[in-house]
Structures are given as C-alpha cells and as structure tokens.
Amino acid sequence: MRDANCGGCSQSCRWKYDLYDMPFGKERKSLQGEIPEEFSMSAVDMSMIDHISDMIENGVDSLKIEGRMESIHYVSTVTNCYKAAVDAYLESPEKFEAIKQDLVDEMWKVAQRELATGFYYGTPSENEQLFGARRKIPEYKFVAEVVSYDDAAQTATIRQRNVINEGDQVEFYGPGFRHFETYIEDLHDAKGNKIDRAPNPMELLTIKVPQPVQAGDMVRALKEGLINLYKEDGTSVTVRA
Question: Of 4, 179, 198, 212, which is most buried by a Cβ count within 10 Å?
Fold first, then answer.
C-alpha cells in the first residue's frame, strides 16, 4: 500500500490513459489516434494568490501550501509569494493590489499546469480539467543555489542543479521578493578551470555576479527547447519553450 498522506502518492491522476467509446450492448472501441494524445484525468492546480484578500477577510488564519515531493525551487518561490501577499494586504489593501500582478507572474515561473481557484467560488467546470496536452509551459528551470559570495572579487560559488552554459540568462532570487536578472559569465569549475558548460548536477562552480547575493539564494534560467501544444480542433503547433 502507498499512503498518499505520507508522501507515497503514485500520482495516478497525472498518468495517461486510453479513451474508449463504450456504446451499450456493443464492443468497446478505443479512440486512440482520434484524439491529440492519450487521455488524462487531471485537474489544473489550485492557486489563491490573487484572492488573498478574500481569504483574510473571511477569517482564514493559516494556509497549507503544497510542498511534499516538490523541489526547493517550487517551494521557495510559492512560499515567498504567499508571504509577500499576506504581509502586503495586512499593511494595506492598496499595497497588495499594487504588487498582485507581480506575484501572479512570479508564480507562473514554477507552475507546471494552469491555475484555478478549485471549489472556492463554485463547482469547477471542464475548463479546470486537463484532458490532453498541458496548456501552460513552465517558463524557468532551477539551475543552482548560492553557496557563498566574494564581495571583493564579485564572484559567487554555486551548487549546480541543472545544466548551466556560459551566456545563459538567469535570475537570482531570495527571501523578501528579492531578485535580479543577469547572464552566466566567467564560468569556472571547482578546480578553477574555465569552462563553457557544466552538465553534472551538484558540482560546485564559480561565476561572475555584478551585485551581492546571499548563501541559499536560488538561480533559475529561462527554459529552452521545443514542445508540441495542441489546439481545440486537435491540430498541434510546435513552439520553443
């Protein structure tokens, strides 16, 4: 047995299934090949980041944010956003409204699927379900975390989590909604050798960083690659992710 409440969820709602036409009294017929891709039974993810005001005004004292089986990139980004949203609204509703779109945009950097409000405002419709290909592409990938920063040399030691290339556009971010964008420059391995590409996870690297960063800050890069997106009429288009 796998206990989903203890982190053992097999995520069967994210699997792909064959879809069958099963008319009464007749043999079932597979619809494979007649739909863009295999069928899934998956709800979009729930997000209330832009409805924090409703939650607070209705007496919500505590929020449970999904974190089990998620990356530190996901957890740090989401908790950072909700913390900023709650603090801003408690200071003034106007301040929350001023930063709300920035928070929503930040959430999309780690969202794996479309977002909706679940059952908060009514019964979800078919628009809150995913029956085929994902309709939203994650924009960023987690590539490293900061180990230390040398102010004099303006270099950061980072622990790699994904492939890093010289010239990659990256974003550093940390607690308090603190972040800035730059490019990977002067990339060296742990032995001090100049390299153009670092493909091995957990390797210690040094890079030039134009402004101070802190140990524990995260580094994410814009995603690249090709993906097929399916339209409502069943046709697909290839886009760069």
Answer: 198
Same domain, 68 and 102: yes
Closest to 75 in 3D by CA, of 84, 67, 64: 67
Q: What is residue 225's predicted lDDT score, i.e. its pLDDT?
A: 46
Rounded Cα gap, residues 211 and 107, in angstroms: 24
For residue 115, the enclosing domain spans 45-128
**Average pLDDT value over all residues in the chain:** 82
For residue 182, which phi and psi values (nearest 5 degrees)? -160, -170
Type of residue found at 150: D
Joined together, the tokens standing for residue 58 give: 């209705």
Please give the DSSP secondary-structure letter assigned to residue 131: -
**In a shared domain, residues 107 and 147:** no
Q: For the chain, how many structural domains are there in total? A: 3
- Whose tokens are 């920035």? That residue is 102
